[in-house]
Amino acid sequence: MNLYLAIKTLHILSSVLLVGTGFGSAFYLYFAHRTRSIAVIAPVTRLVVRADWWFTTPAGLFQPLSGFWLAHAAGWAWKSPWIVAAVVLYGVAGMCWLPVVWLQIELTKMARVASESHLTELPERYWRFAKLWERLGYPAFLAMAMIYFLMVFKPA
Question: How confident is the model at residue 141 (pLDDT cuts 50, 70, 90)?
């Protein structure tokens, strides 16, 4: 196997890891929130943050590095419309993801405190942050889905 195909394979696998972890984390936390149970929410928020550090962050850093390398190696001009669009969309996803990471850490702290204090309800601040967390996830996911389209079809 040549280097280009090896990097391309890692690029594809890391994109699946990036989007899959994000979607899976969103799925579990969304449904954990619907229970309104601190006993459910506290461990899920903790694991969502852990998944972001272990999987999403490394894949998110690898994606642009490998993507630019692949575009260069394949001879694509970095000003190609599909590459520019993919970079802009990746920026949109990143601008949504960065506050989401902070929100997840804050949600985890609040859920841990509520659990350790044997509270029966999470504070209103938790639910405001949870709503914002969810709302930021939609454009991030749509941006990543559009990037998949661009990577496959490479439209002019």
Answer: very high
Angle, nearest 10°, between helix axes 124-153 and 81-116? 150
Mean pLDDT of the chain: 96
Both structure tokens of 20: 């899959």
Residues 104, 111: Cα–Cα separation, whole Å: 10
Contacts of 133 (CB under 8 A, 6+ apart): 29, 100, 103, 104, 107
Of 126, 101, 102, the residue nearest 113 (C-alpha)? 126
| pLDDT-based confidence at residue 156 (cuts at 50, 70, 90) | confident
Cα torsion 132, 16, 44, 36 to 10°: value is 50
Cβ count within 10 A of residue 21: 19
Cα–Cα distance measured from residue 56 to residue 143, given in angstroms and rounded to the nearest whole number = 15
Cα(41)–Cα(73) distance, integer angstroms: 45
